[in-house]
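Researcher: Next sequence.
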Amino acid sequence: MALILIIEDVPAVLLSLKIVLEGLGHKIAAAKNGDQGLTLIKNGSFDLVITDIWMPGKNGTDVIREARAHAPATRFLAITGGDPNSGESRDALRGKDFGADRVLLKPFEKEELVTAVSLLLRGVTQVDGLAKVH
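Model: Next structure:
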């Protein structure tokens, strides 16, 4: 299957994602913040990076932007519940791509994660609400 990096600062969320994806046969690497994640990306070759957007230190949008320079073929899935300080609604968040190939809004169902990962690994990304095959 695929080699997937998960960057998530909430241990319970990280563990849940890891359990689901390992259950599908994927190999998982994990980082608890953006700086750790970037180090792993620069030293490895991942098929997919799943990153939280709002984390202490380097946030997910910075990770995606910097990582694309080192790993242009890697797909990026952003996961976010929004910035607790911004007051953005879920509808406002839904329209953002955060520089990612796809976005999942927290909380999401296991099936939504599985579908997003499957599509990204097949090269199907989301652009302005429309599917795009690479």
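Model: The longest strand covers residues 75-80. The mean pLDDT is 86.
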